[in-house]
Amino acid sequence: MSDALDRRATRGAADPGLPGRVSRATALEPTATTHAGSWAPDAGQDSSALIPMDAPPRLAISLAEVTKVYPNGKHAIEDIDLEVPEGDFVFLVGPSGAGKSTLIKLLVRDEVPTTGSVVVAGIPLDKIRRGDIPMLRRRIGIVFQDFRLLPRKTVRENVAFALEVTGTPRGAIRTTVDRLLALVGLTAQADQRPGQLSGGEMQRAAIARAMVHGPELVIADEPTGNLDPLISWEIIQLLLRINEMGTTVLMATHNAEVVTALRKRVVALEEGRIIRDEVGGYHREYA
Ligand SMILES: Nc1ncnc2c1ncn2[C@@H]1O[C@H](COP(=O)(O)OP(=O)(O)O)[C@@H](O)[C@H]1O
Ligand SMILES: [Mg+2]
């Protein structure tokens, strides 16, 4: 189990100059090498020409013409196309009711789209069988606004639980949990229960739990919605660090200050449609 985390850490370490782009660069390498030989006559050109322009990035998320109509007739998501390359960090913004949580539910197959296709971590969700859903959920780490920790379990037990369920040997569980608690800065609180933690600490525990299977993608639905500004920044820094280690991060948020400061890709939803998809800036209508 700890291998999955090691793998990600190593990937990130391989190219610290390209946080958030590491896995994409890696994905392009074999293609570039393969084509280099046959393009030899042009070898005098800029070496970037050796990377075929049509080489597709590996995608963590791909939605095509996705619409979600709830049974009550509400069109929560309307004809959305969205591609998130592996390794990206993306903010999902928009006013309350814009469809952010619905979009996230479609990604983790809590909901199924009315029409359109959703592919996550290379898995086409319309083809997935019910029995494969746990496998999908292991490849995605999910973080919620309200933490959703088990109140009677300690921090350590909350993080370990998902590994116990999948039958991971005890020694491996301990190693993985220790490392994750260190990553999120909760080593000293390992034996406390959620009720004995601050909001920021609860969210750190939830993030550690989201990372137990070494997910390719972490999806956070307003993870700082219940936290004050300083603690919110700490949580964002943690998610950025996880991203730099090679994990794709999609974060729904209302936090204008954070979105504006970080100059990451911002996908803005309004009434179920993408109204803007660009790097940087938080516009007033997102609140
Ligand atoms: N289970 C549901 N049944 C019917 N309508 C829903 C359901 N869940 C959400 N909605 C509606 O879909 C719209 C989008 O909701 P949601 O995805 O929660 O938006 P956001 O997360 O951006 O606030 C809202 O109008 C909401 O009331
Ligand atoms: Mg929501």
Bound molecules: adenosine-5'-diphosphate, magnesium ion
**CATH top level label:** Alpha Beta
How many separate domains?
Answer: 1
CATH topology: Rossmann fold
Average per-residue pLDDT, rounded, comes to: 85
Helix content: 25-40%
Low-confidence stretches: 1-47
Gross morphology: globular
Task: Give the helix tally.
Answer: 9
CATH hierarchy: architecture: 3-Layer(aba) Sandwich
Question: Whole-Å distance between the termini?
Answer: 40 Å
Largest β-sheet summary: 6 strands, mixed
The SS-based structural class is alpha/beta
Radius of gyration: 20 Å
Strand proportion, as a percent range, falls in 15-25%
Number of strands: 10
Biggest sheet: strands side by side, in what order?
6-7-8-3-9-10
Task: Tell me what the structure shows.
Helix content is 37%, strand content 22%. A 6-stranded mixed β-sheet has the order 6-7-8-3-9-10, with helices on both faces. Strands 2-1-4-5 form a 4-stranded antiparallel β-sheet, covered by helices on one side. The protein is of the alpha/beta class and 287 residues long. Residues 1-47 have low confidence and may be disordered. It has a single domain (59-286), classed as 3-Layer(aba) Sandwich (Rossmann fold), CATH 3.40.50.300. Helix 8 (229-244) links the parallel strand 7 and strand 8 (248-252). The protein has helices spanning 2-14, 22-38, 100-107, 133-139, 155-165, 170-184, 199-210, 229-244, 256-262, and strands at 59-69, 75-85, 89-93, 115-120, 123-124, 140-144, 217-221, 248-252, 265-270, 273-279.
